[in-house]
Structure formats: C-alpha cells, structure tokens
Amino acid sequence: MAESSTRAGWEALFDVEELPWEVNGAGVYDLVHGGNLAFREKRFEDAIKCYSKAQLLEPGNPIILSNRCSAFCRISQFLRDRSALESECQPLNGLDPTTHAELALKDAERVISLRMNSPKSYFLKTSALILLERYEEAHEAVLSGLQVDPFSHHLESCLRDLGRISAGSVKRAKQWKPQLTDDFECTLCLKLLYEPVTTPCGHSFCRSCLLQSMDHGNKCPMCRTVLFIGPKTYPISVTLNNIIQKTFPVEHAERKSEQQSLSHLDVDIMPLFVMDVVLPCQKLSLNIFEPRYRLMVRRIMEGNHRMGMVGVDPATGSISNYACEVEVSECEPLPDGRFYLEVEGRRRFRISRSWDQDGYRVAEVDWIQDIQTTVGTRERHDLQQVASAAADLARSLIRHAKEAARSGRRSRRLELLQAEGMPGLQDLERFSFWLVSHLNLRPSEKLELIRMRDTHERISRGFIFLRAEGENCRVQ
Fold first, then answer.
1. What is the pTM for the complete model shown?
2. What is the 3-state secondary structure (H, E, C) of the chain?
C-alpha cells in the first residue's frame, strides 16, 4: 500500500482550476468558484456537490471534471487516513474510500478523452489508480503521460515513486507473515471473527456470538449502546470478511468447520429440548423464549431441523433416558427474538450419555424400534384383527368429532379432527404410535409407551383408550 506522505505529495499537484468568466455563464462560474472555495477549505463533499451541479449545466467540461476528480481523490485519501479511534468516536455517513476512488477514476478517464495532451489528466488517473491499489495500471498511466510530455518532472518523479512502492510491496510480501491480532478477534468468543458483523456503534463480533448475546438483551456487548438491529438479517461486513479469509485462510477454515459442527451434528448426536414427553406422529406447537433454546433452534435450523424432546421421569425426578426425535415443520422468528415452532414426532431413542453445550443439553443416542419376533399365523391374525378394529374405531371417532363440530356441539376430543392421514396397516409400529398420539395421556403413560417395544401390546392399549374415548363421546 502506498505511503500516505507519497500520496499527499502527488495530490498536492492537483490543485483545482477556475473557469474563465468570459467563456462560461455566470451560474456555472459561481458553482465552480464555490466548489473551489470548499475544496481549499477541505470541505470536499460540498465541493463535489457544486461540481456535480455545474456538470449538469455544462456536461463534458474538462475543468469541472478535473476539479471533481481531485475532490474525489482527496476525500478518498482523507477517509483512508482516519484512525480507528476517530471512526469509532465520530462515525461518518456516506460512500466508502474505494467508491470515491472509483468515481475519481471514471472522471479522470473522461478528462483524458477530452484533454489527451495534458499531463495533468494522467496525474489524475494515476492518483485514482494508486488509491485503488492498482499499481500496474498506475504504472501504465504514468508511461502514457510521459509519451505526451517526456520532460515532465512530475511524471518522472511519479514513476520513481511507483518503482519504490512496487519494490517495497514485493519485499514486504516475502517477509511479512500475517499475525492474528485483536483487530481480527471476536471479543466474545476470543477467536478469529467468523461471519463478522459490525454494529452501528463500530464494534465487530461473530454473527453467532452477537445473536447469542442479543438473546439476553438488545445492547452492544462492548459499549452497552442499545441496538435496533436484527443480527440474523444484518449484513456481514464484506470487507472485513474478505480480509480475514485472505489473510488467515487456515484459521478461517478451522472456524468454519467448528461452526458447522455445532449445526450439523453426527447422526447419533441430538440436541435436547427438555419440556414434555412426545410420541412419534404427535404434532404440537412450541413457543421458544429461553435464550439457551433460542440458540439451539438457530443451530438446528441451519442443520437438519431436528431435535430431541425429552421429559422428566416421574419415577426418578430426573430427565428420562427415553425420548423422541421431533422434526421442525414450521419455524417463525418473532420480533422480540422468540420462535414459534410446529413440530412432529419422528423416531424414538435412548440416551446413552449427555453433556451441556452452550447452556443446553446434547446427548449421544441409540435409536430404538419394536422387537420383531417370529410369531405364528394365529398371532399375526390376532394382531391384524386388533389393528383393524382400532382403525375402524378411530375413523368412527373422527366422523363423530366432525359431525359435532358441524352441529355446533363441542366434542370432548376435537383434536381427533387432526387425526386424518392414518398410516396404512402395513407399518403397524407407526400405526400404533399414530393411534396413541391423539389420546389424552399422562406423561407417565406416554413414557411407558415410548419404552414399550411390543407393537401388539401398544395397539391393544391404544384400542382400550379409544373405546373409553368413544364411550365419553356418546355420553356427550
């Protein structure tokens, strides 16, 4: 990168010009004259506004374009030279230094097309290219200027300085080894910034770290400024992210792998939501408001949309060893940071071991299924009969609930309206859970059904429960 003193020396050559009064109208003259006053007072934004208005009145005027180009170069250099402390204490709004330099380059190229024989035009282009750190193109621009004026001392000096910059850049590239400093570390996790987000108050954090912090309050973790932003949709700092990826490629790859491991767990690793016992095929709605579970939901939504629902075992008073995997079918983030979820039970599992991770529980699980025993023809026939009778009774209850709803009478189990989509009797284990998932069971009864590995027994119990439901409906 060019030294500030060298750039300042070149920019001093580009003083602005006045428009001849007798050639231009009074309006254009006054605008350019006002812009020149603002330029010399270092009010570069005001100068640019004046030059732009004059350019609209007299398009293609090389003096106006040249002056505006100089103003773009100066403001770009001014923004680049600002210290981090100045930017944090007094943040500025508007375009970034690179955009100003690109606008300067565009004006410089138009000036060259209008003043091909003017060395100053090539100074302008060279200055803009140096600000963009495009040194090879800047070198070509200087050589083009020397073809126009071979005896220009300014262009010769510019060529020598560019040679020193190029030599210094090569030497630094060979000797310099990037170091991980506080500028690239997240102050929350104390690791390399990953998907960095810069808050309006000027502090940068990993996106996931800021999300986790804002689960507890909407203030900046560093200066406690109230933040009216949504980190999930707030844009990543593209410039900072590119610098980190190019400067620390190995460390960035490690951070990426680390973040993905939190969202994309192994097949037998399951984050746990401790609330209630859920059965396979059972559907329910959840309102996630605790900070630890908000973090967990964000991670599973970046992964396979699945988690374990586990309840407390009434017999032991601790978390049950048996639980059910649920899949999130709908996830709605709410304005206050909560999540509304629609989930459905999938597979059963047994917890072999568990541990805490960022405040919530994670477990290594063993998947369980019903034991398939070899039975005779009579036993199979009995099982099919019980399943068919249970299916017929379930259909009858569904019809009864629909009729009660249409006639305005309230059914004791209107939830049976949601019981459509009955699995076929080919998969009796799934059918057995569908059967019992719509019944009003106590947590201890649900837990017993999850532990049970006998399909016949589960269907028989479900049939008993359903008959009791049918009798209650008829009483109503």
1. 0.53
2. CCCHHHHHHHHCCCCCCCCCCCCCCHHHHHHHHHHHHHHHCCCHHHHHHHHHHHHHHCCCCHHHHHHHHHHHHHHHHHHHHCCHHHHHHCCCCCCCHHHHHHHHHHHHHHHHHHCCCCHHHHHHHHHHHHHCCCHHHHHHHHHHHHHHCCCCHHHHHHHHHHHHHHHHHHHHHHHCCCCCCHHHECCCCCCECCCEEECCCCCEEEHHHHHHHHCCCCECCCCCCECCCCCCCCCCCHHHHHHHHHHCHHHHHHHHHHHHHHHCCCCCEEEEEECCCCCCCCEEEEEECCHHHHHHHHHHHHCCCEEEEECECCCCCCECCEEEEEEEEEEEECCCCCEEEEEEEEEEEEEEEEEEECCEEEEEEEEECCCCCCCCHHHHHHHHHHHHHHHHHHHHHHHHHHHHHHCCCCCCCHHHHHHCCCCCCCCHHHHHHHHHHCCCCCHHHHHHHHHCCCHHHHHHHHHHHHHHHHHHHHHC
